[in-house]
Here is the input.
Amino acid sequence: RAGDIYTVAGNGRNRDAGDGGPARRAALQTPSAISLDAAGNVVIGDTGSLRIRVLAERSDRFYGRGMRAGDIYLIGGDGRLKYGGDGGIATHAQLSLFRYADGSGWHGGVAEDGSGNLYVADLANRLVRFVPAVSGSFYGREMTAGHIYTIAGDDLNGGPPADGSPALAAHLFRPTAVTVGPHGSVLISDGAAVRLVAAVSGQMFGRAVQAGDIYTVAGGGTGGLGLGGPATKANLVLTAGIAVDGAGNLIVAARGINRILTVADRSGVFNGHPMIAGHLYLLAGTGYQTGLTEGVPAAKAALDTPEDVTVDSSGNLVIADTVSNRIAVVARRSGTFYGQAMTAGYIYTVAGAGPYAPGTGHPAVDSWLSLPGGVAADRQGLVIMAGCQVFLVPASSGALFGQQMTAGDMYTLAGGATSCGFGGDGGPGPLALLYSPGSVATDQRGDVTVGDGLRVRTISR
Here is the structure.
């Protein structure tokens, strides 16, 4: 029923069990990274058990094995905290998946491309791993479906990766997030830099690249930002979430310097400004944590620890500005978005600037948020994860999740109580308790899936 919440995976017991059986009977241990693949399967980074699992949307063959709708399957990791199993069956491999003490890590720690191939930021091992959906040639190597391969990183190497060197010989410092870039490349948020591993040879971000080699796309410099110049000369200090816009340009949440930056994949006019391939440009943030934040050109706005960044269905830039407790939007073009009139290139708070309790139907900008750590965008609006609650700011007015909603207002999708816990399964999401939502994703139907403590739960649109 629309607006109700259901556990789709996890039985609430903190032990490992359930491979190949009904997902609701399986035991999960902190599913802190949730994403949806091209087939609609739920991919679960079950960080507490050091495994990657998948909840099958339909009965078919995925990740090199037959799957039945509603069942859960192990597709990577054997639960041992170390590195091993490379080139073999992914379920026999070892992964090391957890967050750093400062809370970073596993922000976008799993990603899939349109063909169903899986990418994993193997954080503690300082590697990026790859599980192909079909057998073939990837990143300059022959690979077998359902097997796991390191495509970047070599912890025995002590120095920074040399541009144009084999990715398997590169030393990664802090691979906390991965996303798929132009031409099937993988982009890696790696401490103070963003790296690219080329899937095919060609021209990317202003340089010739070879399949299987690694390149720094942004960061790695020791001076200032050098805006407008080569992105590889910039000092980014510490990166968090990364994304790719509709033109293939890289977007970086540089949390260490309180800015959102972009690197052009090719030369052209983007966001109303001419850009040179491989050069660095400012999208938002002055570098200061205080100052103007609202209704000004985004480059003149203050940000405070931006953790996540994404692009909505209209091409607008969406920022989870965590310590300022708000969600901000930089308009790609002038128009009305989330109930507000916006000017192209200006920044607007769409949630978290006011005194009202969130989720009560007040304008989202007049509602408060507590450390929003993640945001997902789709055609129905912005799904925000904050505290023990999940909210929606609808893009347009209408009936969604069993409620009549107004564009730009904020509504609770799940976790309406002020306390945290587990409860309300099978009933209205706003009345349910959430234990500790660690990630959120939306599917093609518009349903919202949340990694919640020892369970994965879905709120029906």
User: Anything to note?
Assistant: Residues 263 and 342 are 24 Å apart (CA to CA). The first strand starts at residue 5 and ends at 9.
